[in-house]
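Quick one from the shared queue. A colleague (R.T.) flagged CoA transferase as missing a structural entry in our internal table.

Convert sequence to structure tokens.
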Amino acid sequence: MKPEWSCLKDVKIIDASQLLPGPHATSLLLQLGADVIKVERRGSGDPSRELGSAVFAQFNRDKRSVALDLRDNADREAFLELVRGCDAVVEGFRPGVMNSFGLGYDDLVKVNPAIVMCSISGFGQTGPYADNAGHDLNYLAMAGYWAAPVQVESKVARPGVRVSDYAASSYAALSLVVAIMSARQNGYGQHLDVSIHDSILSWTAPTAWLARSFEKKPVMSPLVMPENDIFETQDGRHLALGILENKFWVNLCDCLGEVFPLLKDPRFSTRMGRLACKLEVNQLLKQVFLSKPLAQWVQYFADVDLPFSPLLGANELFADAHVQSRGTLREFAKEGTIAVRFPVKFSLGLPDSEGKVPALGEFTPGATE
């Protein structure tokens, strides 16, 4: 008989954060079975509500919205009453703000010694930048995201998603699970200091460290690979070529060598040879891929063992056969929105939640709004 799914089903979390990092972290735990109470500011709620219902829904489906003004004494007591019966509190204010409300970690442990408090802030609770304002681009900039060139014609451009926010939310979710497990074993909670800057720094530091030796001639960095790049096609579309292992270069040459004989230049036959001729190899590949529209390249490489991918547009993405087959996305046709299921497949399965988007304060005790 298949075991009953349990995981985090008896875990209760207060989400007093807003926008992306905290709400995404708690939404991950909700998908793993946790009960999440979303504490929003009375009257205005999470600022993401102002960005549209689909934006708010993305990270807040199936949470129970409670509207409180944490500066108000009665609402502060109501918050502490929630803390008595919960495992964790997630907040995303600047350092010191929760203390100013009388809701810092020392205040919370007085009513629940096993409470875990997870504070997600831009630069952490300590350090010279702790009080600085910032958003995703700022943390990427200060963590050296653009310090390590990886293209022959490297360009500074903002990422399409908020990379540092997602890095922090993932670390926060993992740390919350560990801290809650620990608290249940020994009866003591703890304060988690999650810095968005620290989180993305943990990803960028290794490549930035290597890049120090190539700041004057960045193209010479071994991270800059002429055949591992994004190339434009004849119709203005783009493709990604991810060649790293030499066997894939051999496959590319076997496929295209008769039409483009320069690819078979003996100087390019090894990885070290291509690294020594970066500009020449990259320019050659640019000319090759500009010779046909993207659809023809997709057809051309259909049966070739090659790390090749078209850069999909938004509509193409959701029509993609693999995306549909994996079932990671869940569509709410009536709302015209989607939800992203937990992106790890558990052999025992993960049940779908109802998918309801809470109205502001609808679970506030005695609420009439």
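The first strand starts at residue 12 and ends at 16.
The domain at 12-205+331-340 is CATH 3.40.50.10540 (Rossmann fold).
Added to the table.
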